[in-house]
Structure formats: structure tokens, C-alpha cells
Design goal:
The protein is of the alpha/beta class. It has three domains: 222 residues, FAD/NAD(P)-binding domain, CATH 3.50.50; 90 residues; 48 residues, no CATH class. The protein has 15 helices and 19 strands. The strands form four sheets. The chain has a seven-stranded mixed β-sheet.
Length: 407
């Protein structure tokens, strides 16, 4: 049954925005989605950084609520662990969980097209592609939008800002001082490769003292391959026309992909960092979710899952308190902010571990913590985040206590 608030405007029709439209379609008479990118069902050149995404327990819980889990699972690969590749050619398997649980890997484009297809079947929903919201007045509940042909303003009853780390809704709610960005000095670049002799049931990674590489198998075929390196080392590693650094430190990669250096040199340069917002909502009518509220580093694979979990929790508060009271959004923000802060910090620690930024004492403590958890029949940090819906803040506190014990 629709509420008296009849029009929902969603700024940003990415993965979380499309999922929001499906989840809340029964609550509003009309839903308008504004997405600055082209329609992925007709634009064959659609692409985005992070070619592969991970869906774990939190994400599946929301997708189950949407009723589309089976459609999405049909396009995923199950990954049961990591494969660490050594310079000498040996490989070590590191299971994600002692009981063999698996995360699911899916191509970003595939997931986006599946969600878009589902949204376009909703009779009360209109998606405006190649169109972006450029401003809003929460007090008046109005917004401005534009595309290549025209611009206009309109009213809204309820707005969900899911327009990413550069969200116009976040900026309006927070101003410049209420948005906190932490940018890393690392470059992230990713390419697609057709074939590789690597197992398709796990994530693969390689190390040197200056960079790491990682690879996900792709359901549609081939693999994605990414590199993370300090920006100050780009010229040394990617500007070396003889590719001697890559050949010396990543012989398996260069033997398989002779033009790897050039392909990475030409790849888009991604920025790694995190975003935290002080204010998540205005009254009972405007709220931010996903990366618009809490952009995090991707190294725990929880960015998408945390955004989908936002929807699950928001839906719960709207069901409990309704749309007419500010309590729904204030309770949502109070509930989610500690969790987003926790997974941001957990992801930062994983980033520091994978890129060699941890001190030896920190690495030793981490190893002891994981050993302690295993001996007591508890899931490790990654498994807790991936295979349970335990609050991130609880996971973080457990690890904090153990870290203090072993340092």
C-alpha cells in the first residue's frame, strides 16, 4: 500500500540506487531515478572501475528481500579462498573459512544490467539515464536536474541519495566541513585478460616490496587483473619500457601477458580512499546511503554489501516507524554510522596488510589473533565480515581486544 508520501526521487541509479527502487517500489506511487551514465542495456561500452564485485552474506540478505537472489546467483562464481603466488612459481591456498564457505564473485556490468532490467519492469518507476541531479533544497523538498538537452526543477516527497562518493545530496546535507575524505597515495589499475591457468574457485594475488597484483575469475570467461602501487613508483614500474621490474618481480604475469606493462599504463588510474559524512539525513524526507554516506577501501569486499545492508536496515525502520516521522531516518543513521565506521577501519587494516604497510609487530599480532579465533572455534576477521551478518562494530571490538592482548 502506498503512503501519503507519493514520490520517491533516487539520485544515482547505480547498483544500490537500483536495488533501492526495487525494495521500496511498494511504498511510493511514483519513483524517479536520475543516473548520469547511459543505459547499460543499450550502451555496450559501459564500464566502471572494479570489474568484479563480491557478494557475501549481508548482500544476499538484501537481495533475498528483493526476491532476485536466484537470478543473480546464476551469474556468479563461488570463491572459497585466496591463492598466494610466490615469485618462485609456488602457490599457497588460503581458505576464507575453515568450513569451506564461499563468497560469490560477479561482473559489475552483469549485476548492473540485471538490476536495471528488474527496475524497468516496475510500472511506477521511471529511470532518466544521461541525466544528473545538480542541486536540491531539502527544506523546500525540491531538486534540480539536467541532461544534454534541458534542465528543470521538481518536487519530491522522499529522496534517497545513492550518488556515490561525490554525492550532491551528501554535499547539501553536510557542506564542505561535514564530509571527511582520506585519500591514499596508491594508484589502482585494472585490466581484463582472456585466459589464465589459474583456478576459478578463488582470488589470486602476488606481492613485491613496491606493489601487489590481484586477480578475480570472471563468470563470463577470463579474469580481471588489478595492480596497486604507490603513485611515486608509477614511472619506475609502468614507465620502464623494458618492463624489467615486472619481469623480475612478477615473472608469472609477464610470461602470460607480455604487454601487461603497456596495458596497465593505458588503464584508468583509480583513486583509493574513504569518505565519512557527519550528517546522513534531513527531517523525515532526505537520506544518503551507500558510498554517498560511507565510501570505504575495497580490500574486504564489503563496499557493495554494506550499501545493500543499508537498504535492509532502512527498510526495517520504515516498516517500524513509517515515513511520516523523522524517527525512521534518525534511527537509521544512528544505527548505521557505527557499522560503517567499523568496516571502514577493518578495510583499512586489510589494505595495510595486503600492501605491506603493516609493521612486523602488527603482522605478528594479526597472525596470533587469527590463530586465537581458530583455536576457539570462532571465524576469522574476513570470515566474520563475509559469512555472517554480525554487526561490524562487534567484530571490530573483538579484534581490538585480541590485538591489545597479543601486541
Amino acid at each position: 500500500m502506498s503512503s501519503s508520501s507519493s514520490t520517491l526521487v533516487i539520485t544515482g541509479g547505480g547498483l544500490v540506487g537500483m536495488a533501492a527502487a526495487i525494495l521500496f517500489s511498494h511504498r511510493f506511487d511514483r519513483i524517479l531515478i536520475y543516473e548520469k551514465r547511459s543505459n547499460p542495456l543499450t550502451d555496450q561500452n559501459f564500464s566502471n572501475r572494479s570489474l568484479q564485485l563480491v557478494i557475501s552474506a549481508r548482500g544476499w540478505r538484501t537481495l533475498d528481500l528483493l526476491g532476485i537472489s536466484d537470478k543473480i546467483k546464476a551469474h556468479t562464481l563461488q570463491l572459497k579462498g585466496r591463492y598466494k603466488h610466490e615469485k618462485n612459481g609456488s602457490t599457497h591456498h588460503e581458505p576464507y573459512a575453515s568450513d569451506g564457505q564461499a563468497i560469490c564473485c560477479i561482473c559489475r556490468e552483469t549485476l548492473y544490467r540485471l538490476l536495471t532490467s528488474e527496475v524497468l519492469t516496475l510500472s511506477n518507476t521511471t529511470v532518466f539515464f544521461d541525466t544528473e541531479v545538480t542541486g536540491l533544497d531539502p527544506a523546500a523538498r525540491t531538486y534540480c536536474w539536467k541532461n544534454s538537452e534541458m534542465s528543470d526543477t521538481g518536487p519530491y516527497d522522499f529522496m534517497i541519495g545513492s550518488d556515490g562518493v561525490h554525492s550532491i545530496v551528501s554535499r547539501e546535507l553536510n557542506g564542505d566541513k561535514g564530509i571527511h575524505r582520506v585519500l591514499e597515495s596508491n594508484s589502482y589499475r585494472e585490466i581484463r585478460i582472456a585466459n589464465a591457468p589459474w583456478a576459478t574457485n578463488g582470488f589470486h594475488y602476488w606481492f613485491s616490496e613496491k606493489m601487489m597484483m590481484g586477480s578475480f575469475p570472471v563468470f563470463e570467461g577470463g579474469y580481471s587483473l588489478f595492480m596497486v602501487l604507490e603513485r611515486q613508483d608509477i614511472d619506475l614500474i609502468l614507465g620502464d619500457t623494458d618492463s624489467t621490474y615486472l619481469q623480475n618481480h612478477f615473472p608469472e604475469i609477464t610470461a602470460l601477458i607480455p604487454d601487461a606493462r603497456q596495458r596497465f599504463l593505458n588503464a584508468a588510474d583509480g583513486i583509493l580512499g574513504s569518505v565519512t559524512c557527519d550528517c546522513w539525513h534531513a527531517g523525515n524526507h532526505t537520506v544518503i546511503i551507500g558510498d554517498a554516506a560511507h565510501g570505504i577501501l575495497p580490500f574486504m569486499g564489503q563496499g557493495l554489501n554494506t550499501g545493500l545492508e543499508d537498504l535492509f536496515v532502512l527498510d526495517g525502520y520504515l516498516s517500524k516507524n513509517g515515513l511520516k516521522t523523522e524517527k525512521s531516518l534518525s534511527d537509521f543513521a544512528a544505527s548505521r554510522r557505527p557499522q560503517s565506521d567499523a568496516i571502514r577501519d577493518i578495510s583499512m587494516e586489510q589494505f595495510r596488510y595486503l600492501t605491506g604497510k603493516m609493521t612486523q609487530s602488527e603482522r605478528s599480532a594479526r597472525k596470533e589473533v587469527e590463530k586465537h579465533l581458530e583455536e576457539h572455534g570462532l571465524p576469522g576477521v574476513y570470515a566474520s565480515c563475509a559469512f555472517t551478518t554480525e554487526p561490524f562494530a562487534d567484530i571490530q571490538e573483538r579484534i581490538r581486544v585480541l590485538n591489545n592482548q597479543y601486541r
